[in-house]
Every structure is written in structure tokens, then in C-alpha cells.
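Good morning,

Attaching, inline, the C-alpha cells for the sequence recovery test we're adding to the shared suite. The designed sequence is right after.
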């Protein structure tokens, strides 16, 4: 039973991270290559303060890690499998959307 609770917590953390579009953009950017905060802020066109808050959330969720690089700190995905998971999740959601397999779509307009 403990494994189930741990699995649920892991998925909840992943969901929390994906709940914000900026964090999604950060993860997708880091999926391509590690990056420095200043470069991420410029690429995403957000302030460094705002980026810092989102990176802290992603670190707390265990999805990104910092790598010291001289006087700078680089960010990257905590595990390369996260990049594959993001790709798989995007593909699955697009497939479901295309199929409109959600039974409540017509009634609730949910999907």
C-alpha cells in the first residue's frame, strides 16, 4: 500500500508542475537542452524573478536539477526519461483529443 501512496504522490507532483503553462514551457525547453536561467528568461520572455519562482517549484517537484558550472548554475531535467515522458504525454493527449473518446464531451464540453 505504501507504494501506491508513493506513486500517487509522484504523479501529483508531476501534475502540479504541469499545471502552469510557464512551467510546461520551461520543461519543454529543458527537454531540448540544459540552460542557464538568464537564457531561459530571455527565451521565454519572462522576468528572471518569475522564472526563479517557477524553477524553484520544478526543483521542489524533483523534475529539474541544478548543475554548477563555474560561477554559473545550469538547469536540466532531473532524468532524461522525463523528456520522453513529456513527449509521450503530449502524443497521448493529442490522440485522445483527435478521437474525442471522452464520454462527457458532448454533455459537458469537458475535453
Amino acid at each position: 500500500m505504501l507504494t501506491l501512496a508513493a506513486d500517487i504522490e509522484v504523479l501529483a507532483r508531476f501534475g502540479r508542475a504541469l499545471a502552469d503553462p510557464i512551467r510546461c514551457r520551461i520543461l519543454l525547453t529543458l527537454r531540448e537542452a540544459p540552460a542557464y536561467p538568464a537564457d531561459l528568461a530571455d527565451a521565454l520572455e519572462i522576468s528572471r524573478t518569475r522564472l526563479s519562482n517557477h524553477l524553484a517549484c520544478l526543483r521542489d517537484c524533483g523534475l529539474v536539477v541544478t548543475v554548477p558550472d563555474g560561477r554559473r548554475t545550469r538547469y536540466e531535467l532531473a532524468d532524461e526519461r522525463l523528456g520522453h515522458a513529456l513527449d509521450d504525454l503530449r502524443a497521448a493527449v493529442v490522440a485522445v483529443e483527435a478521437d474525442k473518446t471522452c464520454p462527457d464531451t458532448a454533455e459537458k464540453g469537458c475535453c
